[in-house]
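Long-time lurker, first post. I've been practising inverse folding by hand and with some scripts of my own, and I keep getting stuck on stretches where the structure tokens seem ambiguous. Below is the full token string for one chain I'm working on. Before anyone asks, I'm not after the true native sequence, just a reasonable design that respects the backbone. If someone could post their per-position residues I'd love to compare against what I wrote down in my notebook.
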């Protein structure tokens, strides 16, 4: 009788093969994730470079850098609107209605059309339905819409300086300080910024948008925020002054306004605290930070970073640079160059990079 020899894997051999495959997959996944993050960071770097170059092109055409916010401050457009023609979005720019409009109530000229605020109403075609890839970091999977899905969120913001959006000394009215805090006085002097926001601390402690004299001619009934800066005012040098950086989109969908760059309070950042600082607080005055009462959606999710809506004389309205890139954030400089700044950068250097007229000596730690 002919014997039959069976060929095949034993159970032990099969388990060994499965274990080897699992080990190989375990070794491969981190490498794949690193490649994926490298590609995302490269895309993010290119996006910020385009923003920095677009700002330079805007300056060549208009004689000033972009306005950080429109003349009315919070609500009728931010730098996201005038930059559009320089980011291959001219048709979107031409379709946007009432950029910098004065129909904001409270003594402003009539008629008042509050449906246009933040890009709603007639402008919703653009701000509600379009998440622009050139303003979005692929490393951030956060929600792409806010306010019950009506307005889009993005990741890039302009530099409002080294203190707060009110662009004055911090704490308010303090004296004897310097722009970085190096002298230990506790007073951080505002060192200028390449983009205008809410200047003049007259009403800051109450948490309202500050209102300096209208830069178009002094009429107090007109818009008074976002004064554009000329390139010659950046005495620190354009290569030493940050133009744009990153923020994280709202970690709690529907109840967190961070990343809402169509709105003045979400369109900028300051260098008051180092990037990706887990113990630093965003001060989103006029907006919301999570929880209930901000819009139609309530959530039990907590923001992954500290946030408050209360602006005070010692911790004023501000948003800080944050990203999901391991180890730091991408920044664009005012000369159009791009850098990756490690989150280990010293606070003195980071604050100095945020000033336009501080005349600091930069350390070699970024």
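-- Answer (accepted) --
I ran through it position by position. Result:
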């Amino acid at each position: 009788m002919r014997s039959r020899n069976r060929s095949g894997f034993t159970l032990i051999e099969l388990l060994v093969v499965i274990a080897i495959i699992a080990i190989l997959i375990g070794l491969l996944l981190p490498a794949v994730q690193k490649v994926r993050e490298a590609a995302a960071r490269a895309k993010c770097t290119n996006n910020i470079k385009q923003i920095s170059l677009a700002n330079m092109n805007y300056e060549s055409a208009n004689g000033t850098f972009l306005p950080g916010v429109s003349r009315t401050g919070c609500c009728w457009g931010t730098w996201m609107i005038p930059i559009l023609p320089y980011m291959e979005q001219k048709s979107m720019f031409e379709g946007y209605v009432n950029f910098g409009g004065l129909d904001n109530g409270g003594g402003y000229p009539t008629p008042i059309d509050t449906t246009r605020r933040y890009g709603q109403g007639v402008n919703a075609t653009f701000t509600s339905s379009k998440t622009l890839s050139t303003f979005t970091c692929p490393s951030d999977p956060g929600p792409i819409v806010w306010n019950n899905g009506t307005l889009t969120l993005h990741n890039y913001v302009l530099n409002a300086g080294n203190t707060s959006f009110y662009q004055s000394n911090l704490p308010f009215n303090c004296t004897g300080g310097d722009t970085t805090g190096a002298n230990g006085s506790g007073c951080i002097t505002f060192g200028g910024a390449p983009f205008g926001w809410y200047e003049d601390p007259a009403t800051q402690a109450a948490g309202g948008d500050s209102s300096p004299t209208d830069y178009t001619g002094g009429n107090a009934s007109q818009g008074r925020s976002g004064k554009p800066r000329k390139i010659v005012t950046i005495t620190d040098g354009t290569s030493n002054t940050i133009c744009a950086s990153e923020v994280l989109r709202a970690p709690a969908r529907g109840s967190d306004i961070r990343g809402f760059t169509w709105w003045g309070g979400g369109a900028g950042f300051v260098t008051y605290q180092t990037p990706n600082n887990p113990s630093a607080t965003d001060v989103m005055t006029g907006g919301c930070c999570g929880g209930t009462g901000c819009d139609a959606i309530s959530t039990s999710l907590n923001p992954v970073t500290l946030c408050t809506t209360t602006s005070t004389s010692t911790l004023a309205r501000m948003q800080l640079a944050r990203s999901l890139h391991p180890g730091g954030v991408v920044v664009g400089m005012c000369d159009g160059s791009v850098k990756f700044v490690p989150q280990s950068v010293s606070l003195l250097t980071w604050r100095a990079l945020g000033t336009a007229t501080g005349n600091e000596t930069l350390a070699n730690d970024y």
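A couple of notes from the structure itself: The two ends are 82 Å apart (CA to CA). The helical segments are 11-62, 90-95, 124-127, 347-354. Happy to go over any region you disagree with.
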